[in-house]
Amino acid sequence: MIGLSIGWRLATAGCEVDVFERGAAGRGASWAAAGMLAAGVETEPGELALYELNRASQRLWPGFARALEAASGLSVGYRAEGTLRIALTRDDAARLRATYEFQRQSGIVLEWLTGAEVRRREPHLAAGVAAGVSSAEDHQVDNRLVVPALIAALRRAGGRLHEHAAINRVEIANGRAVGVRAGDELVAADTVVLAAGAWSRDIDGLPPAARPPVRPVKGQMLALRMNPETPMLRHVLWTPRAYLVPRKDGRLIVGASVEERGFDPSLTAGAMFALLDAAWRALPGTEELPIDEMWVGFRPGSRDDAPILGACAVDRLVLATGHYRNGILLTPITAEAISRLILTGESDPAIVPFGLNRFATQAWTRETA
Q: Quick check: pTM over 0.85?
C-alpha cells in the first residue's frame, strides 16, 4: 500500500510512474494486516513523536478513503464505529488504567468504561469483563479492499504496475540513483523510491549509508466467519492478549503474534491456539465460528519500530519503509509527504524526525558517550 499510494499520487500529479512488485501487488504485509487505524489506544510510553505522526495520518484517512474510492470506483471498507480496549480481570484493569492515564495525560481522547458499560456496547463479550476504554477516533479500513482500489487508481492515473518483477538492484552513478534493474533490464528513473517493506535492506546496490535497517517481524493471524446479518462484534476490540477486527462481510480478524523469526512462513499450532484462546476468553461465542483463513505476514520493523521516511545519502533515492505495525495507518501521510518531497523538494515537517540519519546520530551518541 505504501508504494502503490505514492505511485498513485505521483501519477495523478502528471509524473511517469513505474511500480515494481516482487510478487502480486499488495500481497505482503499490506494483505496480511488487520487495517486498524489505532493512533490512540496503541500509543505507549516513548512513542509520543510517533503518535503525532500516526494521529496526523489518522486525520487524513477519511479524505484519503473518499478520494481513493472516487479515483478507483471501488469501496475501501472504511468504518468509524471506534475501538474498545478491555480488561478481563482485576489485574488487567489495573494495567489498563495505568495505560489509560498515560494516554489521557498525553492528550489522547479516551473514555473509561465500567464492565457493564462495555457490555452494553458489545453484548456478546464475556460476562465478567472488568473494565474498558473507548476510543471513538480509532477506526478501521479493510486493507484487502484498499489494495485493489490503489491498483485501479494508479492505472487510471496512467501509472504502470509491474507484478512478479523483483528489483535486483538500485543503480547508482556518481552518488545519484539513476534507475533500477529488473531482471536483465535497466529501467532509468529521475527518482527511485524504496518502499519494499521487510525486504528493503536486501536490495543490491545500496551503499551502507543508504541501507535502511529494516528486518521482518513475523506475525501469525487468522479469520473466523460470523453471520454478517447478525455479527457478534461491531467495534474493533483489543483484549489483553489479542485484537479482534470485524469486517462488513462477516469475517472476524484475530491477531497477531510477534516473532523474531526472519522470513519463516510457517503457521504454528502454538500461535493459533494462543489467538483462539484469547478470542474465546473475551468473546466466548467465537468457539462456534468456523475458521475462514490462517496466514503469516512480515512487518517491516526498524531499530526503533518507527518508519524511515525521506531522502538519504544517495541523491534521488527516497526511502518509505520500516512502518512496522503502522503501515496501513501511515499510508495517507506517507503518500502525501513523499510525493511532496519528490515534486517540490520540500520535506514535510511531520516526517523530518523519521529520516534515516537518526540512526547514524544514535550510533555516534553511543560511541562517544
A: yes
